[in-house]
Amino acid sequence: KVDYDVCSNYGNWLYSAGIGNDPRGNRKFNVIKQGLDYDGNGDYVRLWIPELQGIKGADVHTPWALNSAALSQAGVTLGKTYPQPVVTAPEWSRHINQSLRERSPHPRGRTGPTHTPVQRKQRGIDFYFSSKKAV
Questions:
Q1: Is 4 annotated as a binding residue?
Q2: Into which CATH architecture does domain 29-103 fall?
Q3: Domain segments of the chain as ranges
Q4: Which of 32, 46, 56, 70 could bridge across to 95 with cysteines, CB 3.0–4.6 Å?
């Protein structure tokens, strides 16, 4: 079964390209964060990229950040069996480091937290439609 919704898919591609509808300036799509949030164990990545089958858990989202021993054990050779990254955005560093250290659980895509998740401030609809503008 393929999960596909035409409108959501096109909207997400536009958003990723930086031309989607977003009221916040300088907004960037973080593929590492999205992978960790929605595919915390990396099962979807391994389904579509068989070259990464040997990488366990969320490390599959950042194979270029693994040490040579872990890559060798997984049967991955960067630049040969899997390409080197074309771009590594500075905004990813927080999430790349998170994927290699203890991972904080996310309510989507994970089973059972390993520790108490950090409480985030709820942003409700007033966040998007506030009459006060940040300068």
A1: yes
A2: Orthogonal Bundle (1.10)
A3: 29-103
A4: 32
Compute the distance between CA of residue 3 and CA of residue 110 in angstroms, rounded to an integer.
19
Where does the pLDDT of residue 116 fall: very low under 50, low under 70, confident under 90, or very high at 90 and above?
Answer: very low
Tokens 């994927």 belong to 99
Q: What's the rounded Cα separation, in Å, for the pair 108 and 38?
A: 6
Confidence grade of residue 119 (pLDDT, cut at 50, 70, 90): very low
- Whether residue 39 is annotated as binding a ligand: the answer is no
44 is in an annotated binding site: no
Predicted confidence (pLDDT) at residue 1 exceeds the cutoff of 90: no
Structure-token match 């950090």, residue found: 118
Max CA-CA distance within the chain?
A: 55
Q: What are the angstrom distances between the C-alpha of 121 and each of 26, 53, 87?
A: 21, 37, 31
Question: Which sign does the torsion angle of CA 100, 103, 108, 113 carry?
Answer: positive
